[in-house]
Design brief:
Elements (H helix, E strand, L loop, with lengths): L1 E8 L4 E8 L3 E9 L6 E7 L2 E7 L4 H14 L9 E8 L10 E2 L2 H9 L8 H14 L5 E5 L9 H4 L5 H7 L8 H15 L7 E7 L3 E7 L2 E5 L20 H11 L3 H10 L2 H6 L5 H9 L3 H25 L4 E5 H6 L1 H8 L11 H4 L5 E2 L8 E4 L4 H12 L3
Parallel strand pairs: 1-6, 6-8, 9-12, 12-14
Antiparallel strand pairs: 1-2, 2-3, 3-4, 4-5, 7-8, 9-10, 10-11, 13-14
Helix pairs in contact: 1-3, 2-3, 10-11, 11-13
Adenosine-5'-diphosphate (ADP) binds next to helix 10 and helix 12.
Family: Belongs to the acetokinase family.
GO molecular function, one term: acetate kinase activity
Enzyme class: transferase
């Protein structure tokens, strides 16, 4: 049986999952943290046990070499020969990567060139891909881009109403994100409904710490709430979502902030955290609101409101919907969040069944007389990465 890695790397961390193929069974996962710093932590989950170790790991190549040895030691893999390839999540694929791709040196350079669109992620991911190619020569490395699914958006959805030359000169446009997740849950919803995705209009709500909503028509993304970067769209754990840019100039002047500082505040100190002053974690904010914390309640009200507005706008974009899907941390786990989003939407054919909604599993949660099927579907980005690696790596 062959084994395939799904890799999600950042500048100092590397998350991995290992799948057996063709059975698609997830056999192990883990994370290496603090790469390039002192006291790096290697953590491997296998057969219900967590193995953790602290040591100094100077770079990603050392990290991967160490990880492979560790996996052999723990008998997750018998030998390197078993590893059939690796799939890598890449944040920015720009307009170039319209699908996942088997990566050669030219592609990796392209990933690096797209660093303008994801300065913290793309260079680190390119480094990790090179390291895998060096440590496991001859094994296919496949890039799976957060943006690819959204490259089907029409011009009217991806262009901003700013001078056209900025798009022509600098590719300034909406790219979206979470594409792998939106694609997975849309396809899964069609499968569960027993229908051809080509015949369905689906609104996918990926609501985690980051969150985005996508209008999927016939299996293709036609609009999505994240923009040039993941900062746009709905309220998130720490991100503001959409704001009037003039507000930023006003706040910057009043508070004496630089543009960089303002953008950091919008990314890291806004959203649920910024409004509630309690936490970016939905569980904490829900608990605080339940105890009577008014700002926590306002934060929730704003959160629901922004998500509902996007769902409403995508009903218009699609001309109605056949399916709405909730996924990711909040979407999968918070029944009250789903209840609030679907509240008073019967006019649009959306009616939740409260009892069915009391679940964290893959489930249809709409009432029998709801025109729109409502699903909660746990997302599985790793599985999508593995499937694309098998497909493009000829495994
Ligand atoms: P990320 O965007 O970092 O991948 P996740 O998809 O893991 O995030 O989602 C994290 C969010 O999910 C957090 O806000 C967390 O509070 C929320 N969450 C997880 N479990 C629950 C729960 N039982 N009820 C409400 N929210 C939850």
């Amino acid at each position: 049986m062959s084994k395939v890695f799904a890799i999600n790397a950042g500048s100092s961390s590397l998350k991995f999952s290992i799948y057996e193929v063709p059975s698609e069974e997830a056999i192990s996962s883990g994370i290496i943290e603090r790469i390039g710093l002192k006291d790096s932590i290697v953590s491997v989950k296998f057969q219900g046990e967590k193995h953790e170790e602290t040591l100094d790991i100077e770079d990603h190549e050392v990290a991967i070499n160490h990880l492979l040895k560790k996996l052999e030691e723990l008998k997750v893999i018998e030998s390197f020969d078993e590893i059939a390839g690796s799939g890598h999540r890449i944040v920015a694929g720009g307009e170039h990567f319209k699908d996942s791709a088997l990566l050669d040196e030219e592609d990796i350079q392209k990933v690096e060139e797209l660093a303008d669109f994801a300065p913290l992620h793309n260079p680190a991911e390119a480094k990790v891909i090179r390291a895998f190619q060096k440590v496991l020569p001859g094994k296919p490395t496949v890039g799976v881009f957060d943006t690819s699914f959204h490259t089907t958006m029409p011009e009217k959805a991806y262009l901003y109403s700013v001078p056209f030359e900025y798009y022509e000169k600098h590719q300034a446009r909406r790219y979206g994100a979470h594409g792998t997740s939106h694609k997975y849950v849309a396809e899964r919803a069609a499968e569960l409904e027993g229908k051809d995705i080509k015949d369905l209009k689906i609104i996918t709500c990926h609501i985690g710490n980051g969150g985005s909503i996508t209008a999927v028509d016939g299996g293709k993304s036609v609009d999505t709430s994240m923009g040039f970067t993941p900062l746009a769209g709905i309220t998130m754990g720490t991100r503001s979502g959409d704001v009037d840019p003039s507000l930023l100039q006003y706040i910057m002047e009043k508070e004496g902030l630089s543009m960089d500082e303002m953008i950091t505040i919008l990314n890291k100190k806004s959203g649920l955290l910024g409004i509630s002053g309690v936490s970016s974690d939905m569980r904490d904010v829900e608990a605080a609101a339940a105890e009577g914390n008014e700002r926590a309640q306002v934060a929730l009200d704003i959160y629901y409101d922004r998500v509902r507005k996007y769902v409403g706008s995508y009903l218009t974009v699609l001309g109605g919907a056949d399916v709405i899907v909730f996924t990711a941390g909040v979407g999968e786990n918070s029944a009250s969040f789903r209840e609030e989003i679907c509240k008073d939407m019967e006019w649009a054919g959306i009616k939740l069944d409260s009892e069915r909604n009391d679940t964290r599993d893959e489930a249809k949660i709409s009432a029998d007389d709801s025109k729109v099927a409502i699903w909660t579907i746990p997302t599985d980005e790793e599985l999508m990465i593995v499937r694309d690696t098998v497909r493009l790596g000829n495994i």
